[in-house]
Amino acid sequence: MADRHPTRTAPRRCAWPGDDALMLAYHDEEWGVPVRDERRLYEHLVLDGAQAGLSWRTVLHRREGYRRAFAEFDFERVARFGARDVERLLADTGIIRNRQKVESAIANARAVVALHEAGETLSEVMWSFVGGAPVVNRRRRLADLPAETAESQAMSKELKRRGFSFVGPTICYALMQAAGLVNDHVTGCFRHRELAGR
User: From CA 100, how far away is CA 102, in angstroms rounded?
Assistant: First the structure.
């Protein structure tokens, strides 16, 4: 939902960032920007998986901790993490210390490596669900945004088939929004117009 009282210094934007400076910067600079880079897509997998049951604000405020803990999201390095690394991560206060989520992040790194070994990329797999180009939605209010779609359901099923975890349809749709596979900025938001032309 766009701000009700925009000013010349505050552009109209989606309402979900609130007044949190980090959330505002993320909304204005990253959310919905098309991502095809493998490492950044892996980062989205880790962070959106970590968000399960939590707010995005909670995860975003720990992103630097995740970057440090997970080797700057170098999935080839993370794929080599073992039991000692899991215990190290579970003691790291800079991330969400949930064993299933930590083990999922490592398993997902291994799944990305397996894709590469099979001659595929995570980018190719993910973008195939939107025909290779961002879907530009025209949602007027925050309440109009779905939690999942047929495309995110199909992506979830395929990623699970390929060994990924913490990739349910809702998590997949959050990733699709964040990584710009869909443009879900509301129509009154200045970013909707900017990204619709990409």
Answer: 6
Q: Would you state the CATH architecture of domain 33-196?
A: Orthogonal Bundle (1.10)
pLDDT digits (tens, 9 = 90+) for 29-52: 999 999 999 999 999 999 999 998
How much is the pLDDT for 7? 47
What SS3 state is found at 68? helix
Which of the four pLDDT bands, split at 50, 70 and 90, describes residue 139?
Answer: very high
Single-letter amino acid code for the residue at 19:
D
Judge contact between 192 and 134, C-beta under 8 A: no
E-assigned strand segments in the chain: 135-136, 182-183
Q: Cβ(184)–Cβ(21) under 8 Å?
A: no
Extents of the domains making up the chain = 33-196
Closest CA to 146 of 168, 127, 174: 174
Which helix or strand (DSSP H or E) is residue 44 part of?
helix 38-50
